[in-house]
């Protein structure tokens, strides 16, 4: 829940710098000659809001998604080192999809995730009638296979844009083209 506002920015910056300077990878890969402390300082400047005011609110920053992803990578690295990643595990930023043998195992993994770092809290959604919404898709079981289709929320009215609305014609045309 609320990953972007709960990412520990300093910790994420430091872990990124550590990773970047393993075997001097960053300088070799990008033909640079900067120090780890230079990179840390640059990342602090890039993640600050306004005139040097440093904040922990990544949501409004261009680097927010990148930092959130890097933070989640560190958690996954920790879970992998402890051999706690399920055999089927996929993630997009803060949304994860796992296949578990039963609800008890899923609950144990949720507990493991929630114990991985003090600043974040994960939630779990279980399949209902062999269906599960995930990232705008509805994933459903079809025998031994998983299939997908576009997920529409129960509150969806089907109305996308009224043609008579005061919206530029190109947006109306683009909407029709995507349909």
Task: Give the structure's gist in a few sentences.
This protein has 179 residues and is of the alpha+beta class.
- Our count of helices gives 7
What is the approximate shape? Answer: extended
How many strands in all? 5
Strand content: 5-15%
Question: SS-based structural class?
Answer: alpha+beta
Query: Ranges with pLDDT <50 over ≥5 residues?
Result: 50-55
- The N- and C-terminal alpha carbons lie at a distance of 32 Å
Structural account:
With 179 residues, the protein is an alpha+beta fold. It has helices at 3-6, 9-20, 25-30, 36-46, 64-81, 103-114, 169-178; strands at residues 89-92, 95-98, 131-134, 137-142, 145-150. It is extended and about 55 Å long. Mean pLDDT is 87; it is low at 50-55.
Tag the structure with descriptive keywords.
179 residues; alpha+beta; three-stranded antiparallel beta sheet; two-stranded antiparallel sheet; 7 helices; extended
